[in-house]
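[scheduler] slot 2 assigned
[scheduler] job type: sequence-to-structure, two independent chains
[scheduler] chain ordering preserved from manifest
[runner] begin chain α
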Amino acid sequence: MNNSSGKTTRRNFIRILWIALISISLLEIASVILAFLTSGGRKSGDRKLQELKVLGSLDDFAKGSVTPFRSDRLYLVRMDDGGLIALSLKCTHLGCAVTWNKDSGEFDCPCHASSFLRNGEVSNPPAPRPLDFFPLVIEGGLVKADLKNPNKRNSFQKSQLTYA
């Protein structure tokens, strides 16, 4: 390996360098494979209540009310029959923030004039589908929303409402 003066030859140096580079590459590949095999993530049924955002007490939301939660990017709508739905404030056309128009009783998109009924259904296109909604849980009189899992939908269905 070494010549008579005790120095490493150029050939041996390059061989050692190649071995080191290949070893590092194999370690990186192994770590990617290991990360892939162990990631798995959480399944939707594995959500815990600690991950839900408390929006307030059920008594805080009068029947027929629309309450904005701008920092959470949603509106909490309480229907006249007491059902609740948490609607995304993001328009399904191009993602502009919709606003609640108390006079018309609809959500209006300022970008392209789409509008949505209180339940999130499109009343005036170009929005292609209703507003997304967030799953709600009512526990101990508190209204909690799962902000990590918005639901896309093609129409409003009564089963999308949450009742106490």
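[runner] end chain α
[runner] begin chain β
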Amino acid sequence: MNLFWLDASALVMRYSAERGSPQINLLFSQVSGSRLLLVLESVGEVISVLVRKRNSGALTKHLFHQAITNFTAEIIYGPSVRKLHPDYQQVRASWGFIERYSLNSTDAIILRCALDEAAELRLLGHDLVLVSADARLIGAAQAEGLRTFNPETDDRTVLDALIATPPEPSS
């Protein structure tokens, strides 16, 4: 079974209409919250994106409040979505990704934590898919051996396969 790690670029699509929103909404409708993971720092990033959209007029005041309400209920206080906290060792280990892949610090932490989680899941016969619309993070994740899904460029058939398909046997 695949679990899905959502970064802020993908997660915000759930709460504000964007090009990849249909794919993210499908993911949320097809998998249980217990198969969704994120790093806690992504919560602040999503809130800041929604605030910027409100401030720029891309979201009305009403749509902004609805988005925040839904995000709070589903993610912040949602009991099933796993919100992981990077530890000191993960933060330190992430720094090498900043230079190697030209990532920002949050994306480097996401990558480190996702790799660690994927390693644990693979021992149990599962796998992890990093879900992001950030091409740089997707490229780094693929280079490090993670499965990825970009809701802006990958279509529904790719997502359906990731939802339904067990991981490939490791070599």
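[runner] end chain β
[qc] chain β: The chain has eight helices and five strands.
[scheduler] slot 2 released
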